[in-house]
Amino acid sequence: MSGKKASGNQGEALAGRYLEERGCSILDRQWRCRFGELDIVAQSPEGVLCFVEVKRRGPGSIGLPREFVDGRKRECLRRAAGLYMGVHDLDCPARFDVAEIYEGKDGGLRVVYLEDAFA
């Protein structure tokens, strides 16, 4: 496994734990379809379906992780989410969240979680 893939998986695992600690249920991880990949699909304690895009940046990286969820990426996520809901026959409120994973100079990781990051 490449270093970038392993780093991404580590960030997704941390984001998943963050969600679970807040009472969310993880429904899917790395769900792939023709429109791309949904990093995490979770359900909030209130029953909202959360499509979570995880972005990790190391120390010294330029820009905020959320800035890398650009218009093209958002459109792919919207299409993938629509397909996911159709395939699983879901009819519930949904939102798009971004989990920013920051790596400190000491190698420690922290999560900044943005609910309802875009429509």
Describe the structure.
The chain is an alpha+beta fold and 119 residues long. It is 30% helix and 39% strand. The chain has two helices and five strands, in the order αβββαββ. It has helices at 3-21, 71-87; strands at residues 25-33, 36-43, 49-57, 94-103, 109-118. It has a five-stranded mixed β-sheet, with helices on both faces. β1 (25-33) and β2 form a beta hairpin. It starts with a helix and ends with a strand.
Q: Number of helical segments?
A: 2
Spatial strand arrangement across the major sheet: 1-2-3-4-5
User: Largest sheet, if any?
Assistant: 5 strands, mixed
What does the overall shape look like?
A: globular
Spatial gap, N to C terminus: 33 Å
Helix content: 25-40%
Order of helices and strands: HEEEHEE
Uncertain runs with pLDDT below 50, 5 residues or more?
A: none
What is the arithmetic mean of pLDDT? 92
Blueprint (SSEs and pairs):
Layout (H helix, E strand, L loop, with lengths): L2 H19 L3 E9 L2 E8 L5 E9 L13 H17 L6 E10 L5 E10 L1
Parallel strand pairs: 3-4
Antiparallel strand pairs: 1-2, 2-3, 4-5
Primary descriptors:
single chain; 119 residues; alpha+beta; 5-stranded mixed sheet; 2 helices; 5 strands; 30% helix
Question: What's the short version?
Answer:
The protein is of the alpha+beta class and 119 residues long. 30% of the residues lie in helices and 39% in strands.
